[in-house]
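anyone seen this seq b4? input:
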Amino acid sequence: MAEILRNLRRRVRSIRNTMQVTRAMAMVSAAKLRRSQMALASARPYGEKIKGLLARVAATVSGEFVHPLFARRPEKRITLVLFTGDRGLCGAFNSNIIRRAEQFLAQSGNEHVEVYCVGKRGRDHFVRRGRRILGQIIDLRGRVEFDAARRIATLLQEHYSGLATDAVYLCYNAQVTAMITHGQVEKFLPLDPGAMGLAETTGGAVEYIFEPSREEVFAHLLPRYCESRLYAVLAETLTAEHSARMLAMNNASKNCEELIDTLTLRMNKARQASITKEIGEIMGGAEALRK
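predicted toks r here
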Protein backbone atom coordinates (compact mmCIF):
# COMPACT_ATOMS: atom_id res chain seq x y z
CA MET A 1 0.00 0.00 0.00
CA ALA A 2 2.85 2.39 0.83
CA GLU A 3 4.38 1.71 -2.60
CA ILE A 4 1.08 2.55 -4.30
CA LEU A 5 0.86 5.85 -2.42
CA ARG A 6 4.42 6.76 -3.38
CA ASN A 7 3.73 6.05 -7.05
CA LEU A 8 0.55 8.13 -6.97
CA ARG A 9 2.33 11.07 -5.32
CA ARG A 10 5.12 10.83 -7.88
CA ARG A 11 2.64 10.90 -10.76
CA VAL A 12 0.77 13.87 -9.30
CA ARG A 13 4.02 15.78 -8.85
CA SER A 14 5.10 15.00 -12.42
CA ILE A 15 1.74 16.05 -13.90
CA ARG A 16 1.75 19.26 -11.86
CA ASN A 17 5.17 20.14 -13.28
CA THR A 18 3.89 19.42 -16.79
CA MET A 19 0.89 21.67 -16.17
CA GLN A 20 3.20 24.53 -15.21
CA VAL A 21 5.01 24.13 -18.53
CA THR A 22 1.80 24.02 -20.59
CA ARG A 23 0.43 27.10 -18.83
CA ALA A 24 3.64 28.99 -19.50
CA MET A 25 3.58 27.97 -23.17
CA ALA A 26 -0.05 29.10 -23.45
CA MET A 27 0.87 32.51 -22.04
CA VAL A 28 3.82 32.86 -24.43
CA SER A 29 1.62 31.87 -27.39
CA ALA A 30 -1.01 34.40 -26.31
CA ALA A 31 1.60 37.19 -26.33
CA LYS A 32 2.92 36.14 -29.75
CA LEU A 33 -0.64 35.84 -31.02
CA ARG A 34 -1.35 39.47 -30.17
CA ARG A 35 1.80 40.61 -31.98
CA SER A 36 1.02 38.56 -35.09
CA GLN A 37 -2.57 39.85 -35.10
CA MET A 38 -1.25 43.40 -35.02
CA ALA A 39 1.11 42.62 -37.89
CA LEU A 40 -1.74 41.09 -39.90
CA ALA A 41 -4.01 44.07 -39.24
CA SER A 42 -1.28 46.52 -40.29
CA ALA A 43 -0.50 44.54 -43.46
CA ARG A 44 -4.03 44.77 -44.85
CA PRO A 45 -4.16 48.57 -45.38
CA TYR A 46 -0.74 48.45 -47.07
CA GLY A 47 -1.89 45.70 -49.43
CA GLU A 48 -5.08 47.59 -50.26
CA LYS A 49 -3.10 50.76 -50.95
CA ILE A 50 -0.76 48.92 -53.32
CA LYS A 51 -3.74 47.45 -55.15
CA GLY A 52 -5.27 50.92 -55.40
CA LEU A 53 -2.09 52.37 -56.88
CA LEU A 54 -1.86 49.51 -59.36
CA ALA A 55 -5.48 50.05 -60.35
CA ARG A 56 -4.87 53.74 -61.03
CA VAL A 57 -1.82 53.03 -63.16
CA ALA A 58 -3.60 50.16 -64.94
CA ALA A 59 -6.44 52.53 -65.83
CA THR A 60 -4.00 54.47 -68.02
CA VAL A 61 -2.27 51.47 -69.59
CA SER A 62 -3.68 50.65 -72.99
CA GLY A 63 -3.96 47.09 -74.23
CA GLU A 64 -3.06 43.88 -72.38
CA PHE A 65 -0.74 43.58 -69.40
CA VAL A 66 2.66 42.68 -70.82
CA HIS A 67 4.64 42.25 -67.61
CA PRO A 68 6.27 38.77 -67.26
CA LEU A 69 4.38 38.13 -64.01
CA PHE A 70 1.09 38.19 -65.97
CA ALA A 71 2.30 35.73 -68.64
CA ARG A 72 0.28 32.51 -68.68
CA ARG A 73 1.60 29.22 -70.01
CA PRO A 74 0.76 25.50 -69.65
CA GLU A 75 1.51 24.30 -66.13
CA LYS A 76 4.15 21.69 -66.87
CA ARG A 77 6.28 22.73 -63.87
CA ILE A 78 4.76 23.80 -60.57
CA THR A 79 6.23 25.46 -57.49
CA LEU A 80 4.37 25.04 -54.20
CA VAL A 81 5.18 27.37 -51.30
CA LEU A 82 4.26 25.55 -48.08
CA PHE A 83 3.83 27.50 -44.83
CA THR A 84 4.16 25.40 -41.66
CA GLY A 85 5.50 25.89 -38.17
CA ASP A 86 9.01 25.29 -36.89
CA ARG A 87 7.77 23.44 -33.80
CA GLY A 88 5.01 21.11 -32.77
CA LEU A 89 2.72 21.18 -29.72
CA CYS A 90 0.09 23.07 -31.71
CA GLY A 91 -2.51 20.37 -32.25
CA ALA A 92 -3.19 19.36 -35.84
CA PHE A 93 -1.95 22.66 -37.28
CA ASN A 94 1.09 21.24 -39.11
CA SER A 95 -0.37 17.85 -40.01
CA ASN A 96 -3.50 19.39 -41.56
CA ILE A 97 -1.63 21.77 -43.85
CA ILE A 98 0.89 19.09 -44.87
CA ARG A 99 -2.02 16.77 -45.69
CA ARG A 100 -3.60 19.57 -47.75
CA ALA A 101 -0.33 20.03 -49.65
CA GLU A 102 -0.11 16.30 -50.36
CA GLN A 103 -3.69 16.35 -51.67
CA PHE A 104 -2.87 19.23 -54.00
CA LEU A 105 0.24 17.50 -55.32
CA ALA A 106 -1.71 14.30 -55.90
CA GLN A 107 -4.54 16.13 -57.68
CA SER A 108 -2.15 18.11 -59.88
CA GLY A 109 -0.80 14.89 -61.38
CA ASN A 110 2.40 16.72 -62.27
CA GLU A 111 5.73 15.01 -61.65
CA HIS A 112 7.73 18.24 -62.08
CA VAL A 113 6.80 19.82 -58.76
CA GLU A 114 9.20 21.59 -56.42
CA VAL A 115 8.44 22.83 -52.92
CA TYR A 116 9.59 25.97 -51.17
CA CYS A 117 9.27 25.38 -47.42
CA VAL A 118 8.61 28.05 -44.82
CA GLY A 119 8.99 26.19 -41.51
CA LYS A 120 10.86 23.11 -40.34
CA ARG A 121 7.89 20.75 -40.17
CA GLY A 122 7.06 20.99 -43.86
CA ARG A 123 10.74 20.89 -44.83
CA ASP A 124 11.38 17.72 -42.82
CA HIS A 125 8.27 16.04 -44.22
CA PHE A 126 9.16 16.53 -47.88
CA VAL A 127 12.89 15.86 -47.38
CA ARG A 128 12.01 12.44 -45.97
CA ARG A 129 9.89 11.74 -49.04
CA GLY A 130 12.55 12.81 -51.51
CA ARG A 131 10.63 15.79 -52.89
CA ARG A 132 12.73 18.46 -54.57
CA ILE A 133 13.17 21.47 -52.25
CA LEU A 134 13.60 24.79 -54.06
CA GLY A 135 14.49 26.67 -50.88
CA GLN A 136 13.60 27.11 -47.24
CA ILE A 137 13.17 29.68 -44.50
CA ILE A 138 13.22 28.31 -40.97
CA ASP A 139 13.76 29.53 -37.43
CA LEU A 140 11.45 32.53 -37.69
CA ARG A 141 10.82 32.06 -33.95
CA GLY A 142 7.14 32.87 -34.35
CA ARG A 143 7.81 36.42 -35.56
CA VAL A 144 6.40 38.07 -38.68
CA GLU A 145 9.37 39.44 -40.63
CA PHE A 146 9.01 41.49 -43.80
CA ASP A 147 12.55 40.58 -44.87
CA ALA A 148 11.49 36.93 -45.04
CA ALA A 149 8.50 37.81 -47.23
CA ARG A 150 10.74 39.94 -49.45
CA ARG A 151 13.27 37.12 -49.93
CA ILE A 152 10.53 34.66 -50.85
CA ALA A 153 8.85 37.11 -53.24
CA THR A 154 12.13 38.00 -54.97
CA LEU A 155 13.06 34.34 -55.48
CA LEU A 156 9.63 33.38 -56.79
CA GLN A 157 9.45 36.32 -59.20
CA GLU A 158 12.90 35.59 -60.60
CA HIS A 159 12.03 31.90 -60.82
CA TYR A 160 8.82 32.59 -62.73
CA SER A 161 10.17 35.36 -64.94
CA GLY A 162 13.14 33.17 -65.83
CA LEU A 163 10.77 30.43 -67.11
CA ALA A 164 11.99 27.99 -64.44
CA THR A 165 8.40 27.33 -63.39
CA ASP A 166 4.98 27.74 -65.00
CA ALA A 167 2.88 28.42 -61.88
CA VAL A 168 3.40 29.21 -58.21
CA TYR A 169 0.89 28.19 -55.55
CA LEU A 170 0.68 29.12 -51.87
CA CYS A 171 -0.41 26.51 -49.31
CA TYR A 172 -1.13 27.92 -45.87
CA ASN A 173 -3.56 27.87 -42.95
CA ALA A 174 -6.12 30.65 -43.25
CA GLN A 175 -7.67 31.68 -39.95
CA VAL A 176 -11.47 31.53 -40.15
CA THR A 177 -12.08 32.35 -36.49
CA ALA A 178 -9.91 32.55 -33.39
CA MET A 179 -10.37 28.79 -32.92
CA ILE A 180 -10.82 27.54 -36.49
CA THR A 181 -8.24 27.43 -39.29
CA HIS A 182 -8.66 26.16 -42.81
CA GLY A 183 -5.87 24.87 -45.04
CA GLN A 184 -6.11 26.32 -48.51
CA VAL A 185 -4.14 26.50 -51.74
CA GLU A 186 -4.24 29.60 -53.93
CA LYS A 187 -2.43 30.59 -57.10
CA PHE A 188 0.20 33.25 -56.60
CA LEU A 189 1.83 33.44 -60.03
CA PRO A 190 0.94 34.26 -62.74
CA LEU A 191 -0.87 37.30 -61.37
CA ASP A 192 -4.57 37.57 -62.13
CA PRO A 193 -5.67 41.11 -63.13
CA GLY A 194 -9.26 40.29 -62.20
CA ALA A 195 -8.35 39.14 -58.68
CA MET A 196 -6.21 42.26 -58.23
CA GLY A 197 -9.05 44.52 -59.34
CA LEU A 198 -7.21 45.75 -62.41
CA ALA A 199 -9.37 44.40 -65.20
CA GLU A 200 -12.34 46.62 -64.34
CA THR A 201 -10.30 49.81 -64.25
CA THR A 202 -8.40 49.38 -67.51
CA GLY A 203 -9.25 52.14 -69.98
CA GLY A 204 -10.38 54.72 -67.43
CA ALA A 205 -10.71 58.38 -68.38
CA VAL A 206 -8.51 59.79 -65.57
CA GLU A 207 -5.24 61.19 -66.84
CA TYR A 208 -2.02 61.15 -64.78
CA ILE A 209 1.48 62.39 -65.43
CA PHE A 210 4.04 59.63 -64.77
CA GLU A 211 7.75 59.94 -64.26
CA PRO A 212 9.70 58.13 -65.65
CA SER A 213 6.83 56.30 -67.44
CA ARG A 214 3.60 54.54 -66.58
CA GLU A 215 5.01 51.17 -67.64
CA GLU A 216 8.04 51.53 -65.37
CA VAL A 217 5.89 52.67 -62.45
CA PHE A 218 3.58 49.73 -62.99
CA ALA A 219 6.53 47.31 -63.19
CA HIS A 220 7.98 48.78 -59.99
CA LEU A 221 4.71 48.41 -58.05
CA LEU A 222 4.13 44.76 -58.98
CA PRO A 223 7.02 43.38 -56.85
CA ARG A 224 5.78 45.49 -53.93
CA TYR A 225 2.35 43.92 -54.34
CA CYS A 226 3.85 40.41 -54.33
CA GLU A 227 5.83 41.21 -51.19
CA SER A 228 2.78 42.59 -49.40
CA ARG A 229 0.74 39.52 -50.35
CA LEU A 230 3.37 37.11 -49.03
CA TYR A 231 3.78 39.18 -45.88
CA ALA A 232 0.03 38.96 -45.25
CA VAL A 233 0.08 35.18 -45.80
CA LEU A 234 3.03 34.82 -43.44
CA ALA A 235 1.28 36.91 -40.79
CA GLU A 236 -1.93 34.91 -41.18
CA THR A 237 -0.02 31.62 -40.92
CA LEU A 238 1.78 32.65 -37.73
CA THR A 239 -1.45 34.00 -36.27
CA ALA A 240 -3.14 30.66 -36.92
CA GLU A 241 -0.14 28.77 -35.48
CA HIS A 242 -0.03 30.78 -32.23
CA SER A 243 -3.80 30.45 -31.88
CA ALA A 244 -3.60 26.67 -32.37
CA ARG A 245 -0.72 26.33 -29.89
CA MET A 246 -2.47 28.46 -27.28
CA LEU A 247 -5.63 26.35 -27.64
CA ALA A 248 -3.65 23.10 -27.48
CA MET A 249 -1.74 24.17 -24.36
CA ASN A 250 -4.93 25.35 -22.65
CA ASN A 251 -6.54 21.97 -23.37
CA ALA A 252 -3.43 20.21 -22.08
CA SER A 253 -3.56 22.24 -18.86
CA LYS A 254 -7.22 21.33 -18.36
CA ASN A 255 -6.43 17.67 -18.95
CA CYS A 256 -3.63 17.89 -16.37
CA GLU A 257 -6.04 19.37 -13.83
CA GLU A 258 -8.57 16.61 -14.44
CA LEU A 259 -5.88 13.94 -14.18
CA ILE A 260 -4.55 15.44 -10.94
CA ASP A 261 -8.06 15.43 -9.47
CA THR A 262 -8.53 11.78 -10.45
CA LEU A 263 -5.16 10.71 -9.04
CA THR A 264 -5.73 12.72 -5.86
CA LEU A 265 -9.04 10.93 -5.35
CA ARG A 266 -7.35 7.55 -5.86
CA MET A 267 -4.56 8.57 -3.49
CA ASN A 268 -7.05 9.62 -0.81
CA LYS A 269 -8.96 6.36 -1.17
CA ALA A 270 -5.74 4.36 -0.91
CA ARG A 271 -4.66 6.31 2.17
CA GLN A 272 -8.07 5.86 3.75
CA ALA A 273 -7.93 2.14 3.07
CA SER A 274 -4.46 2.01 4.58
CA ILE A 275 -5.60 3.86 7.72
CA THR A 276 -8.67 1.65 8.05
CA LYS A 277 -6.50 -1.45 7.75
CA GLU A 278 -4.08 -0.20 10.41
CA ILE A 279 -6.94 0.66 12.78
CA GLY A 280 -8.39 -2.79 12.26
CA GLU A 281 -5.04 -4.40 13.02
CA ILE A 282 -4.64 -2.31 16.20
CA MET A 283 -8.12 -3.16 17.41
CA GLY A 284 -7.55 -6.82 16.60
CA GLY A 285 -4.29 -6.81 18.55
CA ALA A 286 -5.89 -5.06 21.53
CA GLU A 287 -8.75 -7.58 21.55
CA ALA A 288 -6.27 -10.44 21.45
CA LEU A 289 -4.38 -9.01 24.46
CA ARG A 290 -7.57 -8.70 26.50
CA LYS A 291 -8.35 -12.35 25.90
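Helices lie at 2-58, 93-108, 120-128, 146-161, 214-290. The chain has two domains: 2-26+249-290, 42-247. kinda curious what u guys think
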